[in-house]
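Prompt: May I have another protein with tokenized structure?
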Amino acid sequence: MNKLLTALLSVIALLLTGIPALAAPDSIKLTVHYQRPGGDYNGWNLWIWKNSDNNSL
């Protein structure tokens, strides 16, 4: 019984690993709505960084 259960679980594991992972999109569109009360947008920029595993600057 143990050998049969092991064989069955092995077959199931092999079948499940064949499921392809979804690919990430090539690009992501991000729209930022920013309004200044005075309407002065000269010298304004948007800086974006990737997420990192450490929480340091």
Observations:
- Residues 32 and 47 are 12 Å apart (CA to CA).
- The chain has a mean pLDDT of 81.
- Residues 2-16 form the longest helix (15 residues).
- The two ends are 57 Å apart (CA to CA).
